[in-house]
Amino acid sequence: MAESLGPRLYSCSNCRNRISLHDDIISKCFQGRNGRAFLFSHAMNITTGPKEDRHLLTGLHTVADIYCADCHQVLGWKYERAYEASQKYKEGKFILEKAKIVKEDW
Predict the structure, then answer these.
(1) What is the DSSP string of 11-79?
(2) N or C: which end of the chain has fewer CB within 10 A?
(3) Across the strands, what pairs with 28?
(4) How does pLDDT run across 7-17, given as a tens digit for each residue?
(5) Quick check: 2 and 64 in contact, CB under 8 A?
(6) Residue 1: beta bridge partners?
(7) Which pTM value belongs to this model?
(8) Residues 68, 25, 65, 44, CA torsion sign
(9) pLDDT of 2-58, one tens digit each?
(10) Contact at 8 Å (CB) between 99 and 35?
(11) CA triple 65-55-81, angle to 5 deg
(12) Beta carbons within 8 Å of 87's beta carbon, 6+ residues apart
């Protein structure tokens, strides 16, 4: 009989708080402040900072930094608003920086 494995998770690299599911990755082709980043459809166990307009590689966006709910490390940001029509798909999605998360239960 095959062993049943749970969902593959990503956790905070600092405290191992569970942050997102591997199945929620939309794209691995994003750039964060500290290198490579992933776009996720959902995130959990986070807090959100204030909204602010930022000029990113793909134009002007309203974003809010996201923090681990346990250790308060900055993990990335949430796209609140995209001003260009081609970027609207990012609204409500989360950027998690690869350097700030680790694979858990793989």
Answers:
(1) EETTT--EEEEGGGEEEEEEEETTEEEEEES---SEEEEEEEEEEETTEEEEEEEEEETTT--EEEEEE
(2) N
(3) none
(4) 899 999 999 99
(5) no
(6) none
(7) 0.91
(8) negative
(9) 455 778 999 999 999 999 999 999 999 999 998 999 999 999 999 999 999 999 999
(10) yes
(11) 60
(12) 58, 59, 61
Torsion angle in degrees (nearest 10) through CA of 16, 91, 82, 38: 40
β-sheet bridge partners, residue 53: 62
Q: With CA atoms as reference, report the closest residue to 77 among 17, 37, 104, 35.
A: 37
Tokens of 34: 């500290």
Sign of CA dihedral 7, 12, 15, 17: negative
Closest CA to 99 of 72, 71, 70, 76: 76
Q: Which of 7, 25, 4 is nearest to 104 (CA)?
A: 7
Spatial strand order in the sheet of 35-40: 25-32, 35-40, 94-97, 74-82, 59-68, 46-56
What six digits make up the tokens of 73?
Answer: 């490390």
**DSSP SS3 for 9:** strand
